[in-house]
Amino acid sequence: MTIGIVGAGQLGRMMALAGYPLGLDFLFLDRAGNSPGGQVAPILCGELDDPRLLATLARRSDVVTVDWENVSVAALRRLGPPGTVAPPLRALAVAQDRLAEKRLFARLGIPSTRHAAVDSRRALERAVRTIGLPGVLKTRRFGYDGKGQYVLRSADDLGSAWTQLGGAPLLYEEHVPFDFEVSIIGARSSRGEIVSYPLNANLHRGGILRLTRAPAGSPRLQRTARVFLEKVLGHFRYVGVLTIEFFVRRGQLIANEIAPRVHNSGHWTLEGAETSQFENHLRAILGLPLGSTRPRGHAAMINLIGRMPPRERFLAEPGVHWHDYGKEARPERKLGHCTIVEASAAARDRRARRLLLAIDPQTRIMGR
Amino acid sequence: MTIGIVGAGQLGRMMALAGYPLGLDFLFLDRAGNSPGGQVAPILCGELDDPRLLATLARRSDVVTVDWENVSVAALRRLGPPGTVAPPLRALAVAQDRLAEKRLFARLGIPSTRHAAVDSRRALERAVRTIGLPGVLKTRRFGYDGKGQYVLRSADDLGSAWTQLGGAPLLYEEHVPFDFEVSIIGARSSRGEIVSYPLNANLHRGGILRLTRAPAGSPRLQRTARVFLEKVLGHFRYVGVLTIEFFVRRGQLIANEIAPRVHNSGHWTLEGAETSQFENHLRAILGLPLGSTRPRGHAAMINLIGRMPPRERFLAEPGVHWHDYGKEARPERKLGHCTIVEASAAARDRRARRLLLAIDPQTRIMGR
Q1: Which of B283, B294, B316 sits opposite A315 (nearest CB)?
Q2: Which residues in A228-245 are b (16+ Cβ under 10 Å) and which e?
Q3: Structural domains of chain B, count
Q4: Is residue A94 included in any domain, yes or no?
Q5: Measured between CA atoms, how close is A333 to chain B, in angstroms?
Q6: What is the pTM of this model?
Q7: Does A318 lie at the interface with B, CB-CB under 8 angstroms?
Q8: Any domain includes A105
Q9: Does residue A96 fall inside a structural domain?
Q10: What pLDDT digit, counting tens, does each position of B141-174 carry?
Q11: Is residue A362 predicted with pLDDT exceeding 90?
């Protein structure tokens, strides 16, 4: 049985590595043959929306899935009857548009940020008047890792924000002075079974995830996040793994965005949970029973960004798990991650702090 | 950095899957392109002792290692200076010859079975007189999974044993009425660091390993096995993972054989230990720090032999980890394994018994 994956980044790579033990084969489609996925499985080289290559991928696969949420929904739609592609295209389409995402949250009764669509300079002024400052102007489409965002702190920022982002469809959003950020990751199988992982506490810097700790959050927060997750999964009759990111403010969840895929904040599940998010995504799209999401302890995941730190030094740390994505170094690029799993949250946090400082002596994440 | 692997069976496959996260690439040499390893990494197709292909493998790899201990030592010797190939060829040569193995045990003061070399019918008669009955006549070379063995229970068996095995260099060995079987797996890195895993308790049927449980054995047994392991590793200035199989009789270890490689009885380490035997083999041959061998709980590994049981049914069991080697079904062939890790030995044994019965209702292993 072959799984076709559109995009061959680190998510696809880890999916393939998780799927081989299940007896699955993989075929990627990506621009670069030497992409992270292409190093561990056969690959078709070309544009991700190339109709001929997508058709070849679909013909040679039993199910097609994605490594990246911004693939062309129109191109995927031509691949065949529903069920050929997972996740559902409706979910991909919503996740690709921040405004559609906000409308979904509203429709499902999931608290989110106040926001307004912005398609002109005048609309931006109106939005800032209504929603207030500070706020964030974001492109509605193709934002990731903090790209396509501009934080407005005063009325003086309107001009440069508009110069930088104006032209594309935009969204102006209140700036939430959150206490911390969490995400919930869950899977729904094609047979309707749902599982979810414990909440992840996420720390970003420069718009990029640096550190995830799990399990995190109170049982009440966990229960609420699970309810919201089930609403989204049910709404789409979703198939596969899906992630919702939240701000937490005064103990309340405020939905930020959804990712219709395995997620960076779930990489800890490779060692820290009984079944990884990657394996559960594959089980879900194949209609297999979903695996236990029980945590094996208290996990921390640290992203390795820009350049890989010396592998040898980190492997000398007992229980550090190393994940090199096989990518070329480039500033701010996610090249790998490492994970630890400890018996207590306190021990986990002590080690995470020490490892973070070793990787990035300038970091202020978690303090010194 | 590329690891060349001679042989592309399930051991090589699991090595590659464990090594990708370390940022390694792999290249196999095997007869069949669609072998377990060839499904997850590039492969050179041909005979394992083909000098031209071995030279290509060595040229395109940083280190060459093996998936099978019976590769031609003479062919590997031509590959280049020591250090190019791990494990050391002297260790491979000894593991390929049961008599050399027995002599090594004697030399290192490791208790083993009484035995005699048998090169003629008359030598067999002499050996049976000296060592007694019952006993086992074995080929000195190329035995695996109980193949190349004949159990002699009475003097009447001499003729048929000789008819079946005579011609090849043989060994006659006392039959040990053991209480149970254990193995110890450890690694020595090219920098001299040594780690070992907890003892494995192994159950065979028809000469094939069916079930491994770990950790097993008393602390005293564990300590003694570790001492013996260190003797063997030190003797060869070994590099990589090595396994020693023992009979246990009246609380004493009796060495049966060594395997200069990762071992079927260590497959549980993929989920059941902090670092798997596969990752530690790679760390060892690359001179990287060895990983923690701490067990994550009480693990059982059940081999899937002859035909794969229905995957769906087993994945529905919480915490069952599935490993399909991608091989064609054939009677008595190892096609995969599954693992469970439980919080207590009792819980582990209950589940292992239930899973064994589901896989093979005829099994008498562990009783009913």
Answers
A1: B283
A2: bbbbbbeebebbbbbbbb
A3: 3
A4: no
A5: 16
A6: 0.95
A7: yes
A8: no
A9: no
A10: 876 666 789 999 999 999 999 999 988 899 999 9
A11: no
